[in-house]
Amino acid sequence: MNPYIHPTALIESGVEIGPDSSVWDNVHIRRNTRIGHHCIVGEKTHISYDVQIGNLVKINAFVYICTAVTLEDGVMVSAGCVFTNDRYPRATEPELMSLRTSDPDEQTMPTVVRAGATLGAGCIIGCNLAIGRFAMVGMGSLVTRPIDDFHLALGHPARVVGYVCRCGMPFAKFEPDHHPERASHTCAVCRRKYSARLGVVTESFAALS
Fold it and tell me: Does the domain made of 4-87+108-174 have the CATH classification 2.160.10.10?
């Protein structure tokens, strides 16, 4: 089925949107961005050019996604999230004689949100980092460094405070950045099993029968 595009959405040339995706009112998607199938882009969201978005991605309202961002399959970006791609931005060239172009340059840094991860409402995401598979970032957090797979990060700046299951439920909590040396865990909700060693979390089984 063709994607649904709200009449007020602005879609620039070269944008690819997969089947069964929905783009809602007053969204602006800039040139050459790719969006996969069965995605949702919420109202008044801005997606800059050359952004890569996988399949089954949910982007809520009022989100800003800049150039050099990649969202893998199954990512959730909650309302009001802001991505960045330049640590030392300036509006003008040093001599103040002209505006700087918005095109990518040597200062443009990438951000990757890995498959299944969730970003809570109002997060600010720094650049030159990755957020791991099925990680979860709490609402209002400021992400300034990478977050590993299945990690739960909160705060301003965000710090790891636990581990989170593929289903979304936390299964371990601890003092910020104090990972247990070694532990085994079972999710209380879906019964998936995990092992953790010095902050590296791996799935022991996909799920218990």
Answer: yes
